[in-house]
Specification:
It is a single chain. The chain is built from 7 helices and 5 strands. The radius of gyration is 35 Å and the shape is elongated. By secondary structure, it is mainly α. The chain has a 3-stranded antiparallel β-sheet, with no helix packed on it. It is found in: Cell membrane. It comes from Micromonospora thermarum.
Length: about 300
């Protein structure tokens, strides 16, 4: 690609214009809104290079040479970019690619971010930690919510049994199923409210203070803010939880479960920080904590004995 000589907006500093002579930028920049002169800018006098520090030679009265001149580029090496720098390398300070040329990109895959010096937690570790937490919350619901669930099953059992008998006998009828009991709707609301409250009480306080639930401690992962390695605090932990936990109230129409499923798989498609939707709302990230080394044996060998 050949660019005609002329005055162009400097890609390295959009507030200025510089003159492109077909091979590189020359001359001093001018403001972008100024009227450029006709033709190239006047040549600048070369600046005198400062003398390198060192002892003065008594014979010649000049400091010794700083070293041998740099060797010319190898003819077998990569061809230079038309802008004057090798491929995949950043341009020199104050210079940019010629007009119409893209900026060089990072060669290959960029390195994975390490928030606060810690590696990002893998999706497998996060999933196992979440399943452990679900098991704990389910056990709490079995204790606190068990009676409400049992009463709800009794209220809807006539409808369920009639529907199952029609499926088994392959009966074709337009008669409606028996209605559920009068308390079925109230019990369903109570069950979902209690389940949501138990999940909130289990996860939010521990995440706010330590960044870890029981499942995260088992798997060695931790939730930290993106901005600083500090406790989340109750407000941030609540914002993180309610994006995933509040849809539990919509389980009666399956919408809540679908929202939670999308949130659960979202880290697989987020790069490079692997944030779930609830992480993005709270500006948090999940990191893998370093494994603590096993303690060394402090016993000393008695004098004269060989191990």
């Amino acid at each position: 690609m050949s660019v005609a000589p002329g005055w162009y907006v400097d890609p390295a500093d959009p507030e200025t214009r510089r003159y492109w002579d077909g091979e590189g930028w020359i001359g001093a920049p001018i403001p972008v809104d100024a009227t450029p002169p006709e033709g190239p800018p006047p040549a600048e006098p070369p600046a005198a290079a400062p003398a390198p520090p060192g002892p003065v030679s008594p014979a010649a009265g000049h400091p010794p040479a700083a070293g041998p001149a740099p060797a010319p580029p190898s003819p077998t090496g990569p061809a230079p970019h038309p802008g004057g720098w090798p491929p995949h390398a950043a341009p020199p300070q104050g210079y940019g690619p010629p007009p119409g040329w893209p900026y060089p990109t990072w060669p290959g895959r960029p390195p994975e971010p390490r928030p606060h010096g810690l590696p990002l937690a893998g999706y497998g570790a996060r999933l196992v930690a979440r399943l452990i937490d679900f098991a704990v919350v389910f056990a709490l619901n079995a204790v606190v919510n068990g009676w409400f669930v049992w009463r709800y099953i009794q209220e809807i059992s006539p409808s369920v049994e009639e529907a199952w008998s029609r499926i088994v006998s392959q009966e074709r009828t337009t008669e409606p199923l028996p209605p559920a009991g009068d308390q079925a709707s109230g019990l369903q609301i109570a069950i979902l409210l209690i389940a949501t409250a138990l999940w909130l009480a289990y996860e939010v306080p521990s995440t706010a203070s330590r960044g870890q639930t029981f499942g995260k401690r088992v798997m060695g992962v931790k939730v930290v803010p993106v901005s600083a390695d500090a406790p989340l605090g109750f407000g941030r932990a609540l914002r993180r939880w309610n994006t995933l936990g509040l849809p539990t109230l919509l389980w009666f129409c399956c919408i809540g479960f679908l929202l939670q499923l999308v949130d659960a798989v979202s880290p697989l498609f987020d790069h490079p920080m692997r944030q779930a939707l609830h992480d993005k709302r709270a500006q948090t990230v999940v990191v893998q904590l370093p494994r603590t080394p096993a303690p060394k044996n402090d016993r000393t060998t008695p004098p004269g004995d060989t191990p």
